[in-house]
């Protein structure tokens, strides 16, 4: 089984990019319009406006031999490209690394830093309309104004039509693969299609766990960025209330904060090949996302190396790390509950076995075999 991969942005520090880099065989091609570093498997496709250039795309594809065209993103893709790909008698799949990319409103947080209620429940991500502060707060009034504003604002017309655009794209897709049941269930509310399956993408091909001795006090860490939905502010609020002077927090990634607390050390961004050294530097990984994060490569990396994991109850951590004894859960966006969990870990530190690791991982080969079985199931 040969796979042709597509991703909208191949970057060094992205979870999806790392996944594609490990999943693709050495002789498989990765198509992308944006790439941050040299990679011999990459073929860069030109953009024409907000979409892939169809002529350039097929010039890149025509000499490729593959059985499955696997989308890791829908950004820049067009229904016309997928329709032409179907004529090549290949299967088309989409791996939904996070559900929000195909939500009919396609957004995480509104301009008041709130998860909007939306039409499908309290946690459904709602609305780019909220980016326009002159629109009244009351949603009913916004909805009344929308038809008129969309005549003036080109951006609003784009967001209004995006759901219909995605619906057309999905008519050409044979299989949708989700990284968790949580992702499947959320998306099922607005994407009623057949051919949906869950394959947990928990393989860690290049991860090597470097030995770290047990110190008197645990070191805590956050890996991510300071965007509101990642929950860093919840963690910082909790940390501010901690009176323990021996506690230390390392912040890795694109983190931009004003910090005067000497216990908090901003380590900054790092290249993906440095993840082994990063994991060696701490004992406890905090995963405080305030939106329903449905996968989480970083928690797999931490658990594989035996780190204590502290996660918000809105993420899929309980499903993905089922049975892991060093997983602690706190109430989403509740910094007081997070504070108490951190204190509990600190108190129990001497009893925690740092050598016990989460071991329920697939290999890349096992994951690819599951993909093969999924796409060929109707041919057996």
CATH class of the largest domain: Alpha Beta
Could you tell me the mean pLDDT?
83
Strand adjacency order, main sheet:
3-2-1-6-7-8-9
CATH topology of the largest domain: Rossmann fold
Give start-end ranges of low-pLDDT stretches.
104-136
**Percent range of helical residues:** 25-40%
Shape: globular
What is the rounded distance between the termini? 15 Å
What's the SSE pattern? EHEEEEHEHEHHEHEEHEEHEHEHEHH
Indicate the proportion of strand residues: 15-25%
- The count of β-strands is 15
Radius of gyration: 22 Å
Structural class: alpha/beta
CATH architecture of the largest domain: 3-Layer(aba) Sandwich
CATH superfamily of the largest domain: Glycogen Phosphorylase B
Main pleated-sheet profile:
7 strands, parallel
Describe this structure in words.
It holds the Pfam family Glycos_transf_1. Keywords: Transferase. There is one protein chain. With 380 residues, this protein is of the alpha/beta class. The protein has three domains: 3-103 and 171-203 and 363-377, Rossmann fold (3-Layer(aba) Sandwich), CATH 3.40.50.2000; 109-158, no CATH class; 219-351, Rossmann fold. Helix content is 31%, strand content 16%. The chain has helices at residues 15-23, 54-61, 79-86, 139-152, 154-170, 181-187, 232-241, 275-280, 297-304, 317-320, 335-348, 364-376; strands at 3-6, 30-32, 42-44, 47-48, 51-52, 68-71, 91-95, 175-178, 196-198, 219-225, 248-254, 264-268, 284-287, 308-312, 327-330. The strands form three sheets. The protein has a seven-stranded parallel beta sheet with strand order 3-2-1-6-7-8-9. It has a six-stranded parallel beta sheet with strand order 12-11-10-13-14-15, with helices on both faces. The longest helix has 17 residues, at 154-170. The chain starts with a strand and ends with a helix.
């Amino acid at each position: 089984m040969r796979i042709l991969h597509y991703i909208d942005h191949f970057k060094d520090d992205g979870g999806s990019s790392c996944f594609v880099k490990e999943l693709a065989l050495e002789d498989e091609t990765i198509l992308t319009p944006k790439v941050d570093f040299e990679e011999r498997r990459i073929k860069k496709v030109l953009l024409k406006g907000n979409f892939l250039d169809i002529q350039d795309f097929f010039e890149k594809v025509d000499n490729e031999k593959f059985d499955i065209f696997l989308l890791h993103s829908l950004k820049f893709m067009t229904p016309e490209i997928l329709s032409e790909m179907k004529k090549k008698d290949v299967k088309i799949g989409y791996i939904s690394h996070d559900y929000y990319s195909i939500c009919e409103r396609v957004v995480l947080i509104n301009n008041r830093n709130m998860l909007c209620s939306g039409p499908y429940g309290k946690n459904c991500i709602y609305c780019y309309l909220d980016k326009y502060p002159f629109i009244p707060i009351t949603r009913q009034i916004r909805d009344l104004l929308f038809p008129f504003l969309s005549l003036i604002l080109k951006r609003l017309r784009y967001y209004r039509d995006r759901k219909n655009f995605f619906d057309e794209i999905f008519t050409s897709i044979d299989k949708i693969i989700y990284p968790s049941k949580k992702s499947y269930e959320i998306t099922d509310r607005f994407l009623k299609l057949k051919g949906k399956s869950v394959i947990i993408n928990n393989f860690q091909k290049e991860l090597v766990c470097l030995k770290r001795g047990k110190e008197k006090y645990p070191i805590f860490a956050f890996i991510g960025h300071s965007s509101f939905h990642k929950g860093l502010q919840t963690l910082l609020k909790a940390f501010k209330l901690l009176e323990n002077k021996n506690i230390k927090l390392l912040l890795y990634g694109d983190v931009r904060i004003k910090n005067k607390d000497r216990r908090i050390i901003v380590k900054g961004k790092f290249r993906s090949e440095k993840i082994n050294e990063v994991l060696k530097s701490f004992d406890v990984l905090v995963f405080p996302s305030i939106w329903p994060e449905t996968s989480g490569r970083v928690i797999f990396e931490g658990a594989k190396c035996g780190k204590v994991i502290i996660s918000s109850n809105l993420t899929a951590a309980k499903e993905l790390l089922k049975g892991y004894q060093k997983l602690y859960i706190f109430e989403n966006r509740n910094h007081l509950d997070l504070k108490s969990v951190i204190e509990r870990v600190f108190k129990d530190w001497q009893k925690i076995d740092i050598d016990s690791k989460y071991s329920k991982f697939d290999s890349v080969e096992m994951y690819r075999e599951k993909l093969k079985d999924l796409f060929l199931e109707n041919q057996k």
